């Protein structure tokens, strides 16, 4: 939770320190105006000191709003223990509980795929203060609504499980996901974020296995659509012209991640064998990485000559990871 708060804090500081001019005009007068002259005379400040005060104010507001965003994201991510028991290793029995516990925080980061439409990227690159404030307010509305509906959803899922009807489980999952997506959309957030958080709340109840089994066809269908869309963006013909860079990215991605995971796992007192298995399983790229590259490329933050080899390296790492995960298990 602390890491998510720091991440949100950094986003808030970076975004608001450069773009939060609307709130400045509400509380601090603009330079060159009569109110600004009165402000300088009253507080005995020149133009340089005035801009210094504005900067301090921006950083302070970035700290407040960034902390709120980080805490909200961390609250959603910590709603359920489903991360370490299900998301990454669902149905495979790939790890012992000891490894799952040591990887829980890393899994939370890799599995948090809530912004498929790239809204966060657009806010940080093109959005102004209204977008940021709307995102913060919408996050608060979504978190409050999910906390209120949490108990009711779990009881409803338990009742559906006792009925043993596959149609009820499918209807429950689709209805809850759709309603949560509508609420998130109305709050100015990504619909995928609402559906993801609602699914987490259902998954932490006793009816998780029943609901999961009945909605598996839908899950497999949408996962297939996601990977087809990602695969359509791969430029396979670029492998022959950029293969040195592809191999370099592949080495950096897998070897560096392996070393980092092993070092972090050992820091928490795990055995070397457990650390090596954890590093091998998490060394490959994830779906979130593919989506992130697509968003940054579309927004102009990442050039195509860098994104194409990195995209191919991530795809190759996922192919290699499918074999490595089985062997590490």
Helix and strand arrangement:
Blueprint: H1 2-19, H2 21-27, H3 34-43, H4 47-77, H5 82-87, H6 97-102, H7 104-111, H8 119-125, H9 129-163, H10 166-186, H11 191-203, H12 208-231, H13 239-267, H14 272-282, H15 287-298, H16 304-328
Helix pairs in contact: 1-4, 4-9, 9-10, 9-11, 10-11, 10-12, 13-14, 13-16, 14-16, 15-16
Task: Report the count of strand segments.
Answer: 0
Order of helices and strands: HHHHHHHHHHHHHHHH
Broad shape: globular
Number of domains: 3
Which radius of gyration do the C-alpha atoms yield?
23 Å
Indicate the proportion of strand residues: under 5%
In helices, the fraction of residues equals over 70%
Low-confidence stretches are 1-29, 73-129
Given helix and strand content, the structural type is: mainly alpha
Count of DSSP H/I helices? 16
Mean pLDDT over all positions: 65
First-residue to last-residue Cα separation: 28 Å
Description:
By secondary structure, this protein is mainly α. It folds into three domains: 1-75, no CATH class; 129-232, no CATH class; 234-329, no CATH class. It is built from 16 helices and no strands. The protein has helices at 2-19, 21-27, 34-43, 47-77, 82-87, 97-102, 104-111, 119-125, 129-163, 166-186, 191-203, 208-231, 239-267, 272-282, 287-298, 304-328. Helix 10 crosses helix 12. It is globular, with a radius of gyration of 23 Å.
């Amino acid at each position: 939770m602390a890491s998510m708060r720091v991440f949100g804090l950094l986003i808030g500081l970076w975004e608001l320190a450069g773009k939060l001019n609307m709130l400045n005009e509400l509380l601090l007068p603009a330079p060159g105006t009569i109110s600004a002259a009165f402000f300088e005379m009253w507080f005995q400040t020149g133009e340089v000191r005035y801009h210094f005060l504005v900067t301090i104010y921006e950083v302070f507001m970035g700290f407040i709003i960034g902390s709120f965003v980080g805490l909200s994201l961390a609250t959603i991510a910590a709603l359920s223990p489903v991360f370490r028991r299900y998301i990454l290793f669902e149905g495979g029995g790939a790890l012992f509980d000891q490894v799952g516990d040591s990887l829980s925080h890393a899994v939370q980061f890799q599995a948090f795929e809530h912004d498929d439409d790239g809204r966060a990227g657009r806010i940080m690159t093109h959005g102004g203060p209204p977008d940021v404030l709307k995102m913060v307010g919408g996050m608060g509305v979504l978190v409050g609504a999910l906390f209120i509906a949490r108990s009711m959803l779990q009881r409803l899922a338990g009742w559906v499980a006792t009925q043993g009807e596959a149609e009820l489980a499918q209807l429950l999952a689709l209805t809850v996901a759709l309603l949560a997506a509508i609420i998130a959309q109305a709050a100015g957030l990504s619909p995928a974020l609402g559906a993801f958080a609602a699914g987490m709340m259902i998954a932490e109840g006793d009816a998780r296995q029943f609901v999961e089994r009945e909605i598996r066809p839908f899950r497999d269908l949408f996962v297939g659509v996601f990977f087809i869309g990602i695969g359509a963006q791969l430029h396979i013909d670029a492998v022959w012209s950029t293969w040195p860079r592809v191999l370099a990215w592949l080495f950096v991605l897998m070897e560096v991640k392996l070393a980092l995971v092993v070092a972090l796992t050992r820091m928490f007192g795990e055995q070397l064998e457990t650390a090596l298995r954890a590093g091998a399983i998490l060394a490959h790229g994830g779906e979130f990485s593919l989506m992130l590259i697509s968003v940054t490329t579309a927004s102009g933050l990442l050039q195509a000559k860098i994104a194409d080899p990195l995209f191919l390296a991530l795809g190759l790492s996922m192919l290699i990871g499918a074999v490595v995960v089985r062997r590490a298990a």
